Amino acid sequence: MNSELSNNNSNPESNHYQLNFVTSLGADAMFLLQPQKGERILDLCCGNGNLTAQIAAAGAIPTGIDLSEDMIKRAKGNYPDLNIHVADATQYRTDTHFDAVFSNAAIHWIKDAPAVASSIWLALRDGGRFVAEFAASGNIAVITNAIKQELQAHGYEWEGRNPWYFPTIGEYTSLLEQTGFRVMFAQHFDKLSPLKGDGGIRRWLDGFNDHFFHDVSSTDKASIYNAIEDRVKPQLEQDGQWLIDTSRMRIIAIKI
Ligand code: BEZ
User: Fold this and answer.
1) Is 216 within the bounds of a domain?
2) Torsion of CA 168, 169, 170, 173, to 10 degrees
3) What separation in Å is there between the alpha carbon of 31 and the centre of ligand 1?
4) How far is the CA of 27 from the centre of ligand 1 (A)?
5) How remote is the CA of residue 187 from the centroid of ligand 1, in Å?
6) CA nearest ligand 1 atom 1, residue
7) Is residue 234 a part of any domain in this protein?
8) What is the DSSP string of 146-208?
9) Is residue 233 one of the residues assigned to a domain?
10) pTM for this predicted structure
11) pLDDT for 59-86, tens place per residue?
12) Pocket-forming residues, ligand 1, beta carbon under 6 Å
């Protein structure tokens, strides 16, 4: 997973909290993929390799790529037999013609979505499938709106802080069609996701400090955190349990 989070092709690695949050969401994407014995499958932005290993366990032949050297090192440590290496999804080129390209919880970290779509198309054999799940339009809108409002209220610019690409279903399926895919399945849905452990929204904010608060003084940060918590609590906290307003896209598209 990545350390340079804006416009790159890796999952977030900044702390284990984020990592657990993301990988816990991978099961449904794997169900959509339905890896078959002998299939060559590219796991795009494979992060810690857990899902790549599941693809291998199903009898398929996965290749995992991720931009983060740290994450690939960790994945190789966990799964020494897997074919996993560092590569940039916006520029990835291969001689292998994959039967499927899979990506979980990563597409939203790469702002150059057309470049990624081209890499995926080029990596697939004719008729091969692209299966992905990622965060989409509306994801964490309550939280990011509150962050924006409170940063601005404290004199900080909002421009340039949001690291994510959260497309609408229309934007993303159009991009895939323009790239040369037939979109067979597209789903966009909202889901309240419980935050695990202590610390609630403050701990969640800490996980994205490098993006949103890197230039904010500690005094301002304390005040901004308080104000954000006050703003979002009525919508995102119920009986002591924090639930964040996630929104996801699931895609199956065929290379034509
Ligand atoms: C998510 O995968 O739910 C997520 C992605 C980006 C920011 C926050 C949450």
Assistant:
1) no
2) 130
3) 20
4) 16
5) 17
6) 135
7) no
8) HHHHHHHHTT---TT--------HHHHHHHHHHHTEEEEEEEEEEEEEEPPSSSHHHHHHHHT
9) no
10) 0.89
11) 999 999 999 999 999 999 999 999 999 9
12) 22, 105, 108, 135, 139-140, 164, 246
